[in-house]
Amino acid sequence: MQYTFESGIAFASKLDAEDPLFKFRERFYLSPGSIYMDGNSLGLCSKDAEAYILEVIEAWKKEAINIWTANSGHYFLYQDHLGKLLAPMINAESQEVTVMANTTLNIHSGIATFYKPTRERYKILVDDLNFPTDIYAVCSQVKLKGLDPADAVKSVPSRDGRTIEEEDIIAAMTDDVALVFLPAVQYRSAQLLDMKRITAEAHKRGIIIGWDLCHSIGAVPHDFADIDPDFAVWCNYKYLSAGPGAIAGFYLNKKHFGKEPGLAGWHGNKKESQFQMEHKFDHALSAGGWQTGTQPLLSMAPLEGVLRIYLEAGIGAVRKKSLQQTAYLMYLIESRLVQYGFQIGNPREDQRRGGHISLEHDEAFRICQALRQRKVIPDFREPNVVRLAPVALYTSYEDVYNLVEILDQIMKNKEYEAFDDARGLVV
Questions:
Q1: How many independent structural domains does the chain possess?
Q2: Cβ pair 161, 346 in contact under 8 A
Q3: Does the residue 2 lie in any domain?
Q4: How far apart (Å, rounded) are the C-alpha atoms in residues 130 and 165?
Q5: Domain containing 361 — which CATH number?
Q6: Are 234 and 167 part of one and the same domain?
Q7: pLDDT tens digits for the chain (427 residues)?
Q8: Is 237 assigned to a binding site?
Q9: Fewest CB within a 10 Å sphere: which of 95, 136, 188, 277?
Q10: Residues 247, 267: one domain?
């Protein structure tokens, strides 16, 4: 899409006045005088999320053990309820979506289910830019099969250190590849892969494919009825703002409901026979069949609150604003900041960009420290990336403008030089 922007704070104010999503800003806890640009790592707490946590606590106080059976078993079946609320985010059927565990364990679950190596077909295809936990899980699963990751894990190299070419992924789908596991959006560069094309090419070759949606869910609408992946995983604490370490998401294509879960647990049993306590696993024929242990209600409740905000706003409207805000941010960067040595490291095209901007600079780490001192919360990623994520539900256009204004001042005055380059426990 072509965008027309103007310089100056008045234009940012005009965009805010015209923004149909601006009203949702008041539903989140914003720190006065602060600009939050780290929603791609941890989304802000919403008042709706808080309300649902308190509702669960009240039910626990009142019902104790009966919390599981009160209200027709609402909380015992809570994962199904949340799956229905999540399904529209990826255009999947409600039975194909559940919430459980965390992203890494869900990767293990998906791969353990589908990875059945043979002498001829035994490799898992990944890319060399993916988030480390994905690779750790893949290598662990390969080792559990008695194979060497140096041989069985095949990594598609990046040509530029920022993005992965779809053609290179497809070319790497050789006859020895059993499974492909890739991120929908690259965590550093915000590159959005062509999931439909890659999935179709994998299936054309008889290869199972799974996707990591951690950096796309809540910022990018996916159409899984059209893309048709085999499985997918994601966290719910970034754009979806379900809280630190919130329960994760899991998608399983309905054509695989009859498969035996690779990691079985008693909450994956059919509900009607679960409490018969049989030692023969009778797994539910839905994504819920991949559940393992007792669901953590206090981790699940915030997700309901924020999903109701998303359903009210509409993921399409969220994506439209996200693209406009990131385009506006790039416009301001190119207008005011390139003179200081900044580069934009993410794709420019709407269809190839996720929800954040990858701002590159040799002094990225110290610049992030200077931003934090100015009450701007960015995100740093090695080796030289300042990640900036305007989240459509609570970031204003004035926030975006003021961010660039502050960056301009930091660079003009060389404020970053007051900070050392030593990394802390969390960067």
A1: 2
A2: no
A3: no
A4: 13
A5: 3.90.1150.10
A6: yes
A7: 789 999 999 999 999 999 999 999 999 999 999 999 999 999 999 999 999 999 999 999 999 999 999 999 999 999 999 999 999 999 999 999 999 999 999 999 999 999 999 999 999 999 999 999 999 999 999 999 999 999 999 999 999 999 999 999 999 999 999 999 999 999 999 999 999 999 999 999 999 999 999 999 999 999 999 999 999 999 999 999 999 999 999 999 999 999 999 999 999 999 999 999 999 999 999 999 999 999 999 999 999 999 999 999 999 999 999 999 999 999 999 999 999 999 999 999 999 999 999 999 999 999 999 999 999 999 999 999 999 999 999 999 999 999 999 999 999 999 999 999 887 777 6
A8: yes
A9: 277
A10: yes
- Maximum separation of any 2 CA atoms in the chain, in Å: 70
Q: Does the annotation list 212 as a binding residue? A: yes
108 is in an annotated binding site: no
d(CA 353, CA 198): 16
**Is 133 annotated as a binding-site member?**
no
Strand 97-100 relative to strand 248-252, pairing: antiparallel
Containing structural domain, residue 256: 50-311
**What is the number of other CB atoms lying within 10 angstroms of the CB of residue 112?**
20
Residues 6+ apart with CB under 8 A from 283: 260, 261, 264, 268, 269, 270, 289, 290
Contact 181, 107 (CB under 8 A): yes
**Is 427 inside any structural domain?**
no
290 with 375, same domain? no
Please name the residues in contact with 62: beta carbons below 8 A apart, sequence gap of 6 or more: none
Query: Nearest to residue 287, comparing CAs of 253, 236, 247, 246?
Result: 253
This prediction's pTM: 0.97
Q: What is the DSSP string of 248-283?
A: EEEEE-GGGTTSPPSS--GGGB-HHHHTT--SS--B
What is the amino acid identity at position 348? R
How many other CB atoms sit within 10 Å of the CB of residue 119? Answer: 6
- Regarding whether 373 and 291 lie in a shared domain, the answer is no
Residue 240, domain member (yes or no): yes
How far is Cα 178 from Cα 123, in angstroms, rounded to an integer?
A: 5
Residue 290 is assigned to a ligand binding site: no
| Alpha carbon distance 41, 239 (integer Å) | 8
Residue 294 labeled ligand binder: yes
Which residues face 322 on adjacent strands?
none
